[in-house]
Structure of 4-hydroxybenzoate polyprenyltransferase, mitochondrial:
Amino acid sequence: MALLRAATADLLRRHLRVPLASLLHPALSPPPQSTESSCPDDPSTPGPVARRGDFFAAPLRRWPRPLIPVSSSSSVDSTGVRLYSHLSGAGSAGGDSTPPPQQSPPAKPPPPSWVDRWVPLAARPYVMLARIDKPYGTWLLAWPCFWSITMAAMPGELPDMRMLALFAYGSVLIRGVGCTINDLLDRDIDRKIERTKSRPLASGILTPTQGVGFLGFQLLLGLPFLHQLNNLSQILVVFSLPLVFSYPLMKRFTYWAQAYLGLVANWGALIGWAAMKGTIDPAIILPMYTAGTCWILVIDTIYAHQDKEDDLKIGVKSTAIRFGDSTKPWISGFGAACIANLALSGYNADLAASAHLAWHISTVDLSDPLDCNRRFVSNKWFGALIFGGILCGRLVS
């Protein structure tokens, strides 16, 4: 028993003489005094031989390597003890202890639309080509039709609901036809504009042949609509097609393409009145048509400010470029003309509708593409206010 205690005491004394740094990292141990105390990496080489009377005669192994690697940002003090700045919080001599900046999480993808959820994959490019997923353009075509149909209703009666539904269907079709023609003719231009380069024909998802085939399909769907109209309305529909087909070319020749769009988009006001009355009353219809044209000119000029920088680079013309810094005075004049012509044509354009258009013109930020797009989209409510005013006027008259 005495011999065992003596051996244990001798082993403890030898281990206590080992520097503390050598227990933290093997590279920090003091240099060996003799070849007997070294422990080579080769496991076949025997370790140091135990002294006489040592009961722990097994070869000694190297202290396990640390789990944390030595980084280039660490420093060594005068005694050779390595300091880990990323553990202790102290940087290297003269270094910066500021933690690395945190990376912002990746942006979330936009939520799936009804097109992604319900439309088959093969049909989605055609839905996008006809802009069915963006109905605000359809509203801009439908409101002038609704205005004239309601204005033509008998005093004290609701407008013809069947006719309203028929023209809603026609507005969807004619908007799809117009967008398809526009994208076929402008596909080379659309590739150069950031907002439009992902359109189906510009991006190559659909070929021009597929676009022409889809255009013919939409025109066939318009035959039932045409069949429900009287002769004068059918003639007016046929006369509208050259306007629809030629509109995309206007931006190549004139700065007033937005005014031409107003003539095209409000043609439905003429058709709607003719469908109800069988005639055209210039004293009512022409001021209404002029008012709608001025309205479209205002909102599409705002819309064109999104692309004015790209348009200048590729040589495309628009009223946004023509008016320049004077855009607000110009569209204020056209807005006033819109309200005046509505009143002249007998519409009950109440104060709310006038204030809505004035608010858009005075507060829009023409240098902000997102704000221009928001104002364009929200102008469907201007059409709704006019429609509400006409309807109330008819019911109480």
Q: What stands out?
A: The beta strands are 75-76, 82-83. The longest helix spans residues 161-185. The radius of gyration is 40 Å. Residues 20-29, 34-96, 347-352 have pLDDT under 50 and may be disordered.
